[in-house]
Amino acid sequence: MDTLFTKIINREIPAKIIYEDDQVLAFHDIAPQAPVHFLVVPKKPVRTLNDLTEDDKALAGHILFTAQRLALELGCEEGFRVVMNCNELGGQTVYHIHMHVLGQRQMHWPPG
Ligand code: 5GP
């Protein structure tokens, strides 16, 4: 069965898309936790960070670099946060890896 994010990638579910290339899709989070909150999702449906393999190293770097470039394009040059939740204890709810990018507000530590 396709993941929720594969359905967004395939345009079966609408989303506010920011960027797309052959490897990733970036779109605004449906429940934003900051003035800027978007997700960078690989088109390859890797379930959790634990499922990444050696073969995915370039893809993982591409996700991070895309997050940085889009954060700057969306006005987060003063700072932003990236988050990847892994499994239940990590707070993951959608089992298709994704990088959250949050910006344009003060972030705090430790996170909840
Ligand atoms: P997780 O909790 O797995 O780290 O993050 C999943 C994120 O996906 C949440 O921030 C949630 O708001 C977002 N999300 C869930 N369903 C949808 C949807 O249908 N569209 C969009 N754009 N975001 C979604």
UniProtKB/TrEMBL annotation:
Pfam families, A to Z: HIT
Domain of life: Bacteria
Signal peptide: none
SUPFAM superfamilies: HIT-like
Coiled coil residues, start to end: none
Motif residue range(s): Histidine triad motif: 96-100
Keywords from the named record: Hydrolase
GO molecular function: hydrolase activity
Protein's name in the database: HIT family hydrolase
Annotated organism of origin: Pseudomonas fluorescens HK44
